[in-house]
Amino acid sequence: MGTVFAIILVFVGCCSNVVTLELLVREFPGCGNLVTFAQFLFIALEGFIFEANFGRKKAVIPISNYVIMVTMFFTVSVVNNYALNFNIAMPLHMIFRSGSLIANMILGVIILKKRYSAEKYLSIALVSAGIFICTIMSAKQVNASSEGSEEQSFSAFVHWLIGIAMLTFALLMSARMGIFQEMLYKQYGKHPKEALFYNHCLPLPGFLLLSTDIYNYCNHFSQSTPVLVPVVELTVPIMWIYLLINVITQYVCIRGVFILTTECTSLTVTLVVTLRKFLSLIFSIIYFQNPFTAWHWLGTFVVFVGTLLYTEVLSSIQAALRGTKTKKAE
To answer: How far apart are CA 83 and CA 93, in angstroms?
Structure first.
């Protein structure tokens, strides 16, 4: 029952979160810092009450280690959301972040001296190829949609390249954080609830550096179209409602993944998260009518085949089928 409940949380929470994020960035493309701050504040408050017991519970992992992890986590979250300011469409954003397997493998080989099977290297090659196809096609769309002089077109393309560079940096930083987290868990044991709290609580002072930007977008949100909330009979600007839903769904998504990690194998978790990303992508394309060519579909297909190959899902299915045939033969 716990596994089914966790899967429902992941699909409902994470998919809804992507939808509300797109609603926010379509209206105000630069609101990423405000969205990130709201998510961090909500999860930190929840963790302070239920995990840290209002500060009375001592951390198992030393705070100094959390400071290092938090610096990386804060950087990744802010850079990922801020990249949406640079002509990065939501579908490309989702596909690019699916390339975390590549970054994990590269840094795993360099830092942890890991060695992988030929199947793993093939899967990474497929994921890389898929992302490359989608990125190149998106680059062509940026050039095609840039109206005006050649200089303006080149400026838009450079703007987009900065966004791609930001996503690449965030991808590698996220992988490095994962390796650091893995090393901490080996030394101190797994404490995901504690890590979730400190990862969202400790970075909060860092948002002071972004306070002017956050304040400006708070004003923009307050000036958005007011809507009547039925139950409480209050008129609230629509963007604040979208932000509230986004924050809640982000929490539901993270909680669902946490439950999955305690109930299932890492293979199952990866498969569920991969399928969730695929559904989010399809919904984003259909509902928001994001431009998506046949080449984009090909790139997406290659990315997800590579992901399934990496997680050995295809091998597991083949083994199960062979087992079924053997039983029938007997």
So the answer is: 9
- Within 13 A of 256's CA, how many CA atoms are on the CB side? 25
> Looking at the whole model, is its pTM more than 0.85?
no
As to burial, measured by CB atoms within 10 angstroms (0-12 exposed, 13-18 middle, 19+ buried), residue 163 is buried
Measured from the Cβ of residue 133, the count of other Cβ atoms closer than 10 Å reads 20
**What does DSSP assign to residue 59?**
P
Instruction: Provide block-wise average pLDDT over 10 residues at a time, the chain (330 residues).
Output: 80 88 88 91 93 90 90 85 78 71 77 80 79 70 58 78 89 83 82 85 90 95 92 89 94 83 64 73 73 79 79 66 62
Q: Where are the alpha helices (DSSP H) in the chain?
A: 2-27, 32-50, 63-82, 90-97, 100-111, 118-145, 150-188, 192-201, 211-222, 238-263, 266-287, 294-310, 313-329
Longest dimension (CA), the chain: 73
CA dihedral (254, 259, 264, 266) in degrees, to 10, reads 30
Q: Which two tokens stand for residue 260?
A: 């999955």
Structure tokens at 251: 């929490």
Dig out the tokens for 328 from the structure: 């029938």
Query: What's phi and psi for 307, nearest 5 deg?
Result: -65, -45
Q: Specify the residue for token string 């890389």.
A: 128
Residues 166, 309: Cα–Cα separation, whole Å: 27
**Contact predicate 247/42, CB 8 Å:** yes
Burial class (CB in 10 A: 0-12, 13-18, 19+), 206: middle
Q: How far apart are CA 270 and CA 265, in angstroms?
A: 9
| DSSP 8-state class, residue 236 | E
Instruction: Give dist(CA 317, CA 315) in Å, integer.
Output: 5
Collapsing DSSP states into helix, strand and coil, what is residue 234? strand
